[in-house]
């Protein structure tokens, strides 16, 4: 019987924890710990529900990789800090930044692995680890719809637990669910979703999409042609029966389509740097340190739930 590898989109989760738990939740020294406690509780719930044998929290070593900016200069520009253009610094709430370090401390003491890749964002780490896994089933947890492109049945099961509306309303996507919800072919649902997203665009990432092509039209095109490559071949064929207006819109977007594919598609071959083995322990790696951190940050209940989940899975 295979095990289960659970891959967590770290920043996606602690941003959601920060905004989902009041910042009036503070530790003994008065510092906010809402993101720490919310994130820790989320991890505990996920371990309880999914019972993974292995677990990795995936990190943004570069939240806005240069190769994507070179391709689409507007990529994530709206998320730059006010003075961050020169340093490529993401705007992060003042009360969240210090808590990220706390989260890393708790993960290390608990013995939960983290992983990143120089020059890549967490999406690429998730994509690489999910693609490289050939033995265990994989569950990718993220609030980013871009990760739906990873849903697959071959060579093993990769499912995406989408938490964009919170963990209580999480949706589990395999190829069939992606196809049903977004109107793409089930046989290549993950790749087709990435192509649909390329056509549609994504304002949250600064991707304009093809002007005049919304999600409904993009879905119709994907169901008919399967891939952007097939669609573009049809556009270049004067005998194809694509509607004149759609043909004109796609022809005008040639440069965008050339560039956007590498931006939307996650990397599958990033060079991963991991903090340690991904085997999820049943006991904390450093119980004394974890207890000390729990007391210092006023997170005894959350840390206790995490430890209980690790032991009881």
Spatial separation of the terminal alpha carbons: 16 Å
Query: What structural category characterises the helix and strand content?
Result: alpha/beta
Helix content: 40-55%
Question: What does the main sheet amount to?
Answer: 7 strands, mixed
CATH class: Alpha Beta
Q: Supply Rg.
A: 21 Å
Task: List the secondary-structure elements in sequence, H or E.
Answer: EHHEHHEHEEEHHHHHHEHH
User: How do the strands of the widest beta sheet line up side by side?
Assistant: 6-5-4-1-2-3-7
* Principal-axis shape: globular
Written description of the protein model:
This protein has 313 residues and is of the alpha/beta class. The protein has one domain (4-178, 267-312): 5'-nuclease (Rossmann fold, 3-Layer(aba) Sandwich). The protein has helices spanning 10-20, 34-50, 66-71, 97-110, 122-132, 175-182, 189-200, 215-225, 228-236, 244-252, 254-264, 287-296, 300-312, and strands at residues 4-9, 54-58, 113-116, 137-142, 158-162, 171-173, 273-274. The protein has a 7-stranded mixed β-sheet with strand order 6-5-4-1-2-3-7. Helix 2 (34-50) crosses helix 4. This is 5'-3' exonuclease. Residues 3-282 form the 5'-3' exonuclease domain. InterPro entries: 5-3_exonucl_a-hlix_arch_N (IPR020046), 5-3_exonuclease (IPR002421), 5-3_exonuclease_C_sf (IPR036279), DNA_polI_H3TH (IPR020045), FEN (IPR038969), HhH2 (IPR008918), PIN-like_dom_sf (IPR029060). 5'-3' exonuclease acting preferentially on double-stranded DNA.
Question: TL;DR of this structure?
Answer:
With about 325 residues, the protein is α/β, with parallel strands linked by helices.
